[in-house]
Write a structure and sequence with these properties.
With 367 residues, the protein is an alpha+beta fold. The chain is built from 6 helices and 11 strands. Strands 10-9-8-7-6-5-4-3-11 form a 9-stranded antiparallel β-sheet. A two-stranded antiparallel sheet has the order 1-2. Strand 1 and strand 2 form a beta hairpin. The N and C termini lie far apart (112 Å). The N terminus is likely disordered.
Amino acid sequence: MRIKMNSNDVQNDQTRPSYSASGHAFRFRSIRKAELAVACILAASLIPGRALAQTTNMSNQKSDTLSAVAKRNVQKKMVQLGSDTGEKRTARADARPAKAITPQPGPFAKFENLRIKGLEVNLPGPADTLVQDKGGIRSALAEIGIGYIAWTQNTYVSNLLPNAAKSTIANQLYSGQNPTFYTLNYMMVTYDLSRYGIPDGQIIVGTEQQAWTWQPGGPDRWGINTIAYYQTFFDRKLELKVGYLMNSYELAGTVVGGNPGANVFGPSSNVLYQGGMNFAPAPTPTLNLTYHFDDRLYNKVSFQRSTSPDGVFAHITANSTGLNWSTANAGLLLLDESGYRNSEPPRVCRRPFGLSYATMAGCSSMA
């Protein structure tokens, strides 16, 4: 607020008595005091809002600061567990430490050393059997070095050609030409000799029973399928297996179609059977030696007494128990296999395409 004064006022002030000057000064002071009071009032009205804003800002800053500090503290307390990126997780630093994650052997790992050794055919392990370790029987036997495997395979084959079911062929030539049923039953027991210091040492004893509605496919029998001794030498560079063996399980890729039990030619689907190679229903004395050049390349040589040159049916008929040292007209058979082992690719099951003239129903279970 400004005070305007003109010349008249000055002149009047000069002509006025002296007390008039002091009164004017008092009025000036009053005006200044009024201005000061107004200013104070305005300032007082502004200060609370500004103070409130400052208080709010301070509170926000304080809360932001506390949040940031808390966040940093939490981040400091968080630790990462697990070496693999896919397995990382977080936990509080003051939490109870977790137990060390170490590979634990499966419940069936203790049976691995009791599985039949020296085979080329990969028979299912205890985990893939029907009984597994029910009742702890397998574990109890394993403690004294005994392992076992048993299975039954039951197959029915029938001709689906028109009117085939209404007539039978007197001289059946193959499995399924007439409705055919057969059952194959095996059991093999192993004993671990490595507990006595023999490298990979093992004794294998097995039996096989079969019955056929078409006898040339079998014939019916009950006898041994293997009595063998196995061990390794030179840090597993050399394998030795000797006894009554079934080379159909010892050598690779010997069966037409891959499965003699599900083949219309039965056990005779193995071409080498006709050449004299022994197999489960017809074991013969055999010595197998396998030398490993490295982890993949190997050579296996087999010296065996051949089966009867008159055929499978003649051999089993003459030696149904399999214990005879020789049969008529049988001699020495030499087999040699060189191979390069590779990891097996994943199997893809495919539904067969096309028309079929026979139907086959099979059922098997393993213990």
